[in-house]
Amino acid sequence: MSTYPTIWMTSGSVIRTGQQDCGYKRWLLYHAGVNGVGYRKKAQAIPLATGSGVHRGMERIGGWIIDWQAANAGRRLLSVPDEVIGWAAAEAAAEYEQGAWARGLELSARDATTIESYETLIREQATLIESQVWIYAIVRLPFMLARAKLLAVEAEETPVILCTCGLGDWFGDVTQHLARGCQGYCTQGRSDFLWDVIDPSAALGGQPSFIEYEEFKTKATPNYGWDNAWEHSAQLLLNMEAASRRIGRSVEQAYVPVLYKGKRDKLNRDDQF
């Protein structure tokens, strides 16, 4: 028999799987099993670099910026030192490599040529992660630092709706509702970067500052339909609303910087281009 928490936990990935793929697939991946967390098959291949690896590097850079701002109150940070970027990118790549080698693959049972091709693939993907972290840091980051202060990095957003415990919808976070036995619904999300932007029009009577939400993504190639879908993304809207209520200030803008990494096709057994 499956058991579940009193609050039904969901996220953008869960919702999209059920709506775009299959409701049964959503149940198998996220809700099946004795603990109600779904099933996962054991990986049988080396994972290609995904957005999670790049996010690890961004998170380290963002954490460094937050620490610098706290230690240098009243000063503006306009650039991140190359050694910090290099450290964040290298750590993210190393974390990917460690995970890729720990996926349960029995490489010792394969021939030397296959092992060499796997090593090449892992080095290639780790290099891709490093390069994308560097690209964001030297292209997008200086622009943002020139106009804003970083408020939060990878902040968890856990709003509860259809509350049954008396706290009310959108009040507090999921832990407070769980403690009261709430049976509402929680949409889990993360705000990648939240920026406090200094509006240059303030001198002309405009808004002195506003909060901007940055949700960076990696993608193989441009896709018109995928780009336009963000205009109506529940992920963006829910995270913006949750962050607004948590901070007490409106998150007025959202941007989705996209890092294109190219498409890698598996043309034969040796994973060649």
* H/E element order: EHHHHHEEHEEEHHEE
| Rg | 21 Å
- Helix/strand-derived class? alpha/beta
Mean pLDDT: 82
Helical residues, percent: 40-55%
What does this entry show, briefly?
The longest helix has 36 residues, at 112-147.
What is the strand and helix layout of this fold?
Elements: E1 8-11, H1 12-21, H2 23-30, H3 51-71, H4 82-101, H5 112-147, E2 148-157, E3 160-161, H6 174-179, E4 185-198, E5 209-214, E6 217-219, H7 224-229, H8 234-247, E7 251-255, E8 258-260
Parallel strand pairs: 1-4, 5-7, 6-8
Antiparallel strand pairs: 2-4, 3-4, 4-5
Helix pairs in contact: 1-2, 3-4, 3-5, 4-5
Report on the structure:
The chain has 273 residues and is of the alpha/beta class. The chain has helices at 12-21, 23-30, 51-71, 82-101, 112-147, 174-179, 224-229, 234-247, and strands at 8-11, 148-157, 160-161, 185-198, 209-214, 217-219, 251-255, 258-260. Strands 1, 2, 3, 4, 5 and 7 form a six-stranded mixed β-sheet that branches. It has a two-stranded parallel sheet with strand order 6-8. It is globular. The chain starts with 7 loop residues before the first strand and ends in a 13-residue tail after the last strand. Residues 267-273 have low confidence and may be disordered.
Keywords:
disordered C terminus, 273 residues, alpha/beta, six-stranded mixed beta sheet
